[in-house]
Amino acid sequence: MKKQLLKVIALTAVLFASGQVFAQRYMQEIFSSYTKSANMEYDTNRSLNLLYGQVPGQQPIFTASLKCDVYQPTGDTAAKRPTVILVHTGSYLPGIINKQTTGSKDDSTIVEMCKRLAKRGFVAVAVDYRLGWNASSTIPDTATGDLLRATFRAMQDVRNCVRYLRNNAATYKIDTAKFIVGGQGTGGYVALALGTVDKRSEIESLAKFQRSDFSPMVNVDVMGDWNGLGGVPFYNYGGETNLSGKIHMIFNYGGALGDSSWLQSNSLPVVSMQCVSDPFAPIAIGNVVVPTTGVTVISNASGAKTTIPKANALGVNNKINSGNYPDPISARAITIASGVKNLYPFYTSYPAESAPWEWWDHTVMNGITSVNYNGIPLPASGHTADSLSMLTNPYMSAARAKSYIDTILGFVVPRIVTQFDLLPPPPDTLKVFGLAFPPNNYSAVVSNDSTKLDTITWQASATDFPSLGAITYTWLLTTATGNFSSPLLTMNSSTNMSVFKENIIYSLLVANNVPQGQTLNAKWTVKAKIGSSVKWSKDTFNIALTRGGNAGVNEVNLNTAVSVYPNPAQSVITVSSTQNVLINSVQIIDITGRTLITEIGLNNNSYQLENHHLNAGIYFINVSVKDGGNIIKKIVVE
Question: How far apart are CA 368 and CA 384, in angstroms?
Fold first, then answer.
């Protein structure tokens, strides 16, 4: 396969979990212009030839060049951007030939949507796909099989377009973890299939997608799979296996889901908009009708009123549904959709309207008498296409269509933003947290020991915006009467714990002229940070730090003199000391700072604790000796 590789309403903005409001990228147009890379060949593949049997010398299958247009915001400095791929309508036939005014990536609605999305800060891609099927057939098996295979080829093409974009992500500044596919009309069928089909059985084993002899209408061994891979080369050039065609979200305005069984808990997040009066696609469960013949080609397809409630119930849309949408478009949607989230049913003023977001120029359309197909001009009546399209869009105008596009973007973009955490967090995004160990009003004798480790712990904070990265912490120590803007000591940590050598604190006491045997009354706290958001602990704990002496027990390295074993412990914990160091008291403290056990007046060289009542986890054992001094040991209980 040949690849050309290249290195509504303007919402002020909405946010969600906090209800805060932001005016910024994605939620509105912040760029004044866009840059369009037109007719980029993303793939070549085998396609049905509509000229076969009509023009002498034509073969039934030919190699088609597949193109896309890439729209980017002009002047954007972002290194990576989410990408919205739009799939056009047209009944899998070229425009005008299909007796419609639409049928390519150059359709007015597709172009307008791409322009607006680019100005909001997205990369927008208008994609063409392989066309061709026997739209004039009145034989159900033939019509259904042809249409199903056309949809399948279009799915493969969109996957291969994603591969092209992923391969050129640096050129187009694409975030390859954020591909969204939106489909208009016929493209809606493609988008919904892309987001749901992931098993061979879903294509080949459903009775309605089998011929009368029970053979599958789509044979994966022949056509390749739903990812565009494999197949017989005469019918399909398999996609590049080293490039992923994965997408991450879908939406549709028009179209329907081929079968409700495709939608399962692992399907992609989905948002749907559809006219309730669409004569060709059902709004709930119903038949799909071909505009050119009126023949039913798919029975019991699932429209938006069936698909979206099921997606919500399966948990497919949990992330989208975590958002709060106080905008007027969402408020209107909830009302007219009877409380169903992610569904916007359009109730239009005409009883058989299918696509009020489309428009075209009457004069230009009526002047068309031929269409170029595969290098050959074919007779085609723009007048007929104009007349037939007006039957289901009688009030068509550019202004009216653009107002519907306002609604489409105003509804789907906030949900894309929620799904991918695209809005910056509010200033107070971090959750409240407290201090743990050592507890408030704790006293410690500090020795000049470079081998003894001291441990400070606090509760972990949290955020609703994990895309910002990891939370970092800073532990701060200052005098009891001081402030933390000028701390005596700070230490950074990537976890809710700080471990350091005790002689660091000893040196601090010396530097602050604390005499041997005297105490510095201090206090400590912790601040958390993620992105630009900072939150201080809700607590400030006092601590008395006594500088150890130079005689008697203080000359003894308590880290060596006192032992706690076994570690990890299972049944019994033993605290022991050398003969010249008597244990006075033992405290067992959990990682949250709670004192669980206190034993005083021991006056012994050994203490044993049966730990059967301690849960598995990390604990601190604070050992005080008779002649002054203490040490904290960490132990793991299994």
Answer: 10
Q: What is the pLDDT of residue 363?
A: 97
The answer to whether 599 touches 608, Cβ cutoff 8 Å, is no
pLDDT at position 14, please?
34
| Residue indicated by tokens 């990812």 | 227
Q: DSSP labels for 583-606? A: EEEEEEEETTS-EEEEE----BSE
Query: Residue 187 — pLDDT band, cuts 50, 70, 90?
Result: very high
Residue with tokens 């005596």: 488
Beta strands in 138-243 (DSSP E): 174-184
How confident is the model over 332-342, as pLDDT tens digits? Answer: 999 999 999 99
Number of other residues whose CB lies within 10 A of the CB of residue 234: 10
Residue 365's SS3 state is helix
Distance CA 209, CA 206 (A): 5
Give tens-digit pLDDT for 123-171. 999 999 999 888 777 777 788 899 899 999 999 999 999 999 999 999 9
Q: What is the DSSP letter of 257?
A: B
What sign results for the dihedral spanned by CA atoms 315, 319, 322, 328? negative
For residue 295, pLDDT over 90 is answered with: no
The class level of CATH for 34-360+399-419 reads alpha beta
Q: What are the structure tokens assigned to 197, written together?
A: 């089909």
DSSP element (H, E) containing 453? strand 453-458
Task: Classify residue 262 by its DSSP letter.
Answer: G
SS3 492: strand
Q: Which residue has the higher pLDDT, 96 or 601?
A: 96
Q: Name the pairing type of β-strands 249-253 and 270-275.
A: parallel
Q: Which CATH class for the 556-638 domain?
A: mainly beta
**Joined tokens for residue 310:** 């099921």
CA dist 171 and 163 (Å) reads 14
Measured in degrees and rounded to the nearest 5, phi and psi for residue 126 equal -100, 120
Per-residue pLDDT tens digits for 237-287 = 999 999 999 999 999 999 999 999 999 999 999 999 999 999 989 999 988
**8 A C-beta contact, residue 462 and residue 431:** yes
Structure tokens at 589: 């403290």
CATH domain 425-550 topology? Immunoglobulin-like (2.60.40)
Tokens 């991918």 map to which residue?
Answer: 420
Q: pLDDT tens-digit profile of 317-370? A: 999 998 889 899 999 999 999 999 999 999 998 989 999 999 999 999 999 999
What is the DSSP-derived secondary structure letter of residue 486?
Answer: S
Strands of 169-316, DSSP E:
174-184, 249-253, 270-275, 285-289, 296-302
**Is residue 164 classed exposed, middle or buried when 0-12, 13-18 and 19+ CB atoms within 10 A define those classes?**
buried
Model's pTM, two decimal places? 0.69
* Range with lowest mean pLDDT among 80-89, 319-328, 405-414, 420-429: 420-429
CA distance 176 to 165: 8
Q: Which two tokens stand for residue 289?
A: 């009708």
- Same CATH topology for 425-550 and 556-638: the answer is yes
188 and 257 in contact (C-beta within 8 Å)? Answer: no
Strand order in the sheet with 497-501: 435-437, 453-458, 497-501
Question: Are 345 and 272 spatial neighbours (Cβ–Cβ below 8 Å)?
Answer: no
Contact between 408 and 514 (Cβ < 8 Å) = no
Domains of the chain: which residue ranges?
A: 34-360+399-419, 425-550, 556-638
